[in-house]
Amino acid sequence: MALAVASRRFTSVLRPQAAAVFVASKYVRPFSTTGKPDSRHMSTTAAGETSQMKDELPKGEIPFISIKDEKAKKIASAEPDVTHFRTHGGHHPLEKQAKILPYHSWLPHPVWGEEATSTVKITHVKPEVFADRAAYFCVQSLRALWDVTTGYGKPGFKEAGWIDRMTFLETVAGVPGMVGAMCRHLQSLRRMERDYGWIHTLLEEAENERMHLMTALVLKQPNAFFRGSVLVAQGVFLTFFSISYLISPKFCHRFVGYLEEEAVKTYTKMLEEMNAGKLPGFDIPAPPVARHYWQLEENATLKDVILAVRADEAHHREVNHTFASMRRNDPNPFPPGY
């Protein structure tokens, strides 16, 4: 009789609310892997609790099976501090106390010592085959065009010009690694064969270049024109590099190798001007993002950051020239974080 009364009461409440959602917590029977209620979890007091339920339902509200269950209320209201899934008693990413680490990079990357940053040399790999010569010609042409456009090397090229140049170039420099990793990833899926370890190195390169950009943005607040220029440049370069990688990965890796040769030249000139006192505005502490990423000392300066960036570029130069000289299925000689 009590169940019949409760059923009529539920029906009268649900009619005006056809889309009402029930959230059951302690009164819902768990299901086994067979899809049927698991008898091991059935409550022997279910009938008594059902008879009490009809007196707890507030009029005009969605009839939660257990209106006193605060956790059920929170889940229904979608409050962000509710943990919806838990498989163990340890830390859960949805818990409220979870913290986001500042400036944290999730991919391994080199941390350079003083000797490594101070001994970087300007080197050049001589083009040998047609793909090498084509890559070298493209890089030299782009460099000449960019130097003229930005006024690089002229007497008025000071701190603002350097930061603009660094910021813009790093928005483009992060493209090749990601494109190469994506192409090899999809190729591995499509051909159903191994990648031989190249993907992780290319992803690490893309992330490293992105962190160069994050460092530059501490010193540069891009305006609308700058952002629009980046959008156009990225679209053009992404299209060019993606098609080129599908046609000739060797050309692309040699292209990046030569591009990094020019980057090492640029940062070396920047350091020379800083040492000569021509850029007094750069005599500042290292930004926190850079200090954390490269694990620099607390008293590190912007010069230490540029030294680390140059070491990164020399590293990418080595990696890409090596990849350009390898066959597609050769194992990657560089371990994660190299």
UniProtKB/TrEMBL annotation:
Gene Ontology terms: cellular component: mitochondrial inner membrane
Summary of the function given for this chain in its UniProt record: Catalyzes cyanide-resistant oxygen consumption. May increase respiration when the cytochrome respiratory pathway is restricted, or in response to low temperatures.
What family, per the record?
Answer: Belongs to the alternative oxidase family.
**Which named protein is this?**
Alternative oxidase
In the record, biological process GO terms are: alternative respiration
Quote one Gene Ontology molecular function term: metal ion binding
The UniProt annotation puts the region (Disordered) at: 33-53
- Cofactor(s) essential for the protein: Fe cation
The cross-references to InterPro entries, in alphabetical order and at most eight, read: AOX, AOX_sf
Could you confirm whether the keyword Iron-sulfur appears in this record? Answer: no
Q: Where in the cell is it found?
A: Mitochondrion inner membrane
Q: Keywords on this record?
A: Electron transport, Iron, Membrane, Metal-binding, Mitochondrion, Mitochondrion inner membrane, Oxidoreductase, Respiratory chain, Transit peptide, Transmembrane, Transmembrane helix, Transport
Composition skew (Polar residues), residue ranges: 33-51
